[in-house]
User: Fold Ketol-acid reductoisomerase (NADP(+)) from Natronorubrum thiooxidans.
Amino acid sequence: MTDEFTTDIYYDDDADVSTLDDETVAVLGYGSQGHAHAQNLHESGVDVVVGLRESSSSRSAAEADGLTVTTPADAVSQASYVSVLVPDTVQADVYENAIEPNLEAGDTLQFAHGLNIHYNQIQPPEDVDVTMVAPKSPGHLVRRNYENDEGTPGLLAVYQDTTGDATERALAYAKAIGCARAGVIETTFQEEVESDLFGEQAVLCGGVTALVKHGYEALVDAGYSPEIAYFECLNELKLIVDLMYEGGNMEMWNSVSDTAEYGGLTRGDRIVDDHVRENMDEVLEEIQNGEFTREWILENQAGRPSYSQLRQAEQEHEIEDVGARLRELFAWADDETEAETESAEVAADD
Ligand SMILES: NC(=O)c1ccc[n+]([C@@H]2O[C@H](COP(=O)([O-])OP(=O)(O)OC[C@H]3O[C@@H](n4cnc5c(N)ncnc54)[C@H](O)[C@@H]3O)[C@@H](O)[C@H]2O)c1
Ligand SMILES: CC(C)(O)[C@@H](O)C(=O)O
Ligand SMILES: [Mg+2]
Ligand SMILES: [Mg+2]
Assistant:
């Protein structure tokens, strides 16, 4: 652990996977996070059982990966450590029907995101540990990075520690899935939930796609070619972000031309201006006061009408078609990327 930072960060040397030697870990769900955690745990020597419904098409994938698969209820009853990796929107239901009736005193109930605990959709009994190991990464990269001997940073939080060993066990889990290679930051459920929802809405997923689409549309509406607009506003974004990832904003500024640097430094704040910051503060407030989560729960209860419509519109945006055709012609393109194949498998499920 290092104390150079504002918070505690744990690395491989701080954790011991053998802490989980006498435990069976139930991984519920075999989607984006589930398949990565289950396989990484298994390859780290942890005894894993995957819990999926009889009807789930993820079953064949988990079995093909050499894992033992059973129903969620049976997996929980076999396990002392339960990792809840079904979608946030079904967790309360899965908890009520499959987890709670099979939990025993001293078990660990673990999440990769704290939404259902923080917003009181799941209220666990007092005699179990409740922890979180939340990779700061899409699940497919948690797996890919583990296989490449790299890791993904993660957050660790303890909501309830009845055994006194909650942190040690969660750290062992974090190490087993590869997070402690990159750093595990200790936090609270509240901080993880609010920062994670904010990040994905304002910057990582919502903000960045809106910026890309506006940039693409501004060029195409002004008469430039869609192919050039795609390469300029979407494809090159990855290459620019790679430099930011490797060495911060300065590595990117150092690599681009002085012209790009001067243009970016003088125009960037005109595009993402104070008004955007005010919008970000509003979005954060809706997360903090529970408005976003209430809206999302109601949207699900109504059968996801807005979500389906927005998803359809995103799919039909011209940039999707232009990009798909261009990517097919990349010299290294061999049908699909690994993540696209895996996402398609998950999307076909349930
Ligand atoms: N997707 C990510 O990269 C990511 C990153 C960090 C944290 N998280 C968190 O991880 C958790 C899992 O998210 P995900 O995106 O991996 O989920 P996902 O949508 O990829 O999970 C789908 C899996 O859940 C199973 N499933 C769906 N409904 C079910 C039900 N009613 N009963 C039993 N199984 C069911 C499916 O069979 C499938 O295996 C969430 O808490 C999420 O917030 C996800
Ligand atoms: C991968 C993300 C966006 O970081 C995660 O938080 C999620 O909800 O999928
Ligand atoms: Mg999230
Ligand atoms: Mg996240």
Notes: The chain has 17 helices and nine strands. The mean pLDDT is 95. The chain has two domains: 9-187, 199-347. The first helix runs from residue 32 to 43.
